[in-house]
Amino acid sequence: MESGVWPLFRFDPARLERGEPPLELDVLPGKSTLREYLAGEARFRLAERRDPARYERLIAAAERDVRHRSELYRALSELRLSASKQES
């Protein structure tokens, strides 16, 4: 979670009534890197040994995806919407 690979968040529509964003991030990525996370997994070390150049390309693409996803979730967690009440 700390690398951003597995984002941890909560969505609570009731927060709208309090004027708060409904999406709340529980763990912000950046405490560790994707590369550090993958280095701790034997399956990824095997892939790196098998084809180092391909592994580097895949890591670069995955890091880019993690960054984009983190930016999206961060922006969504700052989004303030007004609570709408349905008429009966």
Task: Summarize the structure in short.
This protein has 88 residues and is mainly alpha-helical. The chain is built from three helices and two strands; from the N terminus they run E-E-H-H-H. Strands 1-2 form a two-stranded antiparallel ribbon.
Q: In what order do the strands lie side by side in the largest sheet? A: 1-2
Please state the overall shape, judged from the principal axes of the Cα atoms.
elongated
Total number of beta strands: 2
- Helices and strands, in order, run as EEHHH
**Mean pLDDT figure:** 84
Count the DSSP helices. 3
Please bin the fraction of helical residues.
40-55%
Distance between the termini: 43 Å
The oligomeric status of these chains comes to single chain
Over all CA atoms, what is the radius of gyration? Answer: 18 Å
In this structure, how is the largest beta sheet organized?
A: 2 strands, antiparallel
Structural class: mainly alpha
Strand residues, percent: 5-15%
Unreliable spans: none
Count up the domains: 1
List the helices and strands and how they pair.
Layout: E1 9-11, E2 23-25, H1 34-39, H2 42-50, H3 52-77
Antiparallel strand pairs: 1-2
